[in-house]
Amino acid sequence: MALNIKPLADRVLVEPKEAETKTASGIIIPDNAKEKPQKGTVVAVGNGKKDEPLTVKVGDTVLYGKYGGTELKLDGKDYLMMRESDILAIV
Predict the structure, then answer these.
(1) Could you say which of 6, 27, 40, 79 would form a disulfide bridge with 16 (CB–CB 3.0 to 4.6 Å)?
(2) What are phi and psi of 29, to 5 degrees?
């Protein structure tokens, strides 16, 4: 299902990955100890600025700062709207 939202300028809409529920050794992490995810998938991108085209595209998996972006809830899902400069890397 396609989202009916188009970010403006250099903004990017990211769907965060689910927080880890278990450690590598098998220990279950309780809800109050889970960390905010810092990895997500780009769902929509803006057109970029006149002199700065965007380098990310829809479908890219990206790393971003822990407290970057603005949280949105669309169609029952959580998303983050952020500037491309808040994205640290494409993985």
Answers:
(1) 40
(2) -95, 125
Residues 51-91: pLDDT tens digits?
Answer: 888 899 999 999 998 888 899 998 888 999 999 999 999 99
Distances (CA, A) of 46 to 6, 31, 32, 50, 80: 6, 34, 35, 12, 14
Q: Distance between terminal CA atoms of the chain? A: 24
The closest of 4, 33, 2, 5 to 20, measured between CA atoms, is: 33
Which tokens sit at 68? 């970057």
CB of 6 closer than 8 Å to CB of 46: yes
